[in-house]
Amino acid sequence: MSLHKIERSSKAHRESQQRKINLLTNPKSTGEQPQTMGGDH
To answer: pTM for this one?
Structure first.
């Protein structure tokens, strides 16, 4: 049972990581500047 829980949370973690990578590589897709690069706000 706990194994299934861990698997699900790791999947969510992986998806959030993928979203971050997508933001960094293609910020225009969301219309936002990546946090790491845009220190000029």
So the answer is: 0.44
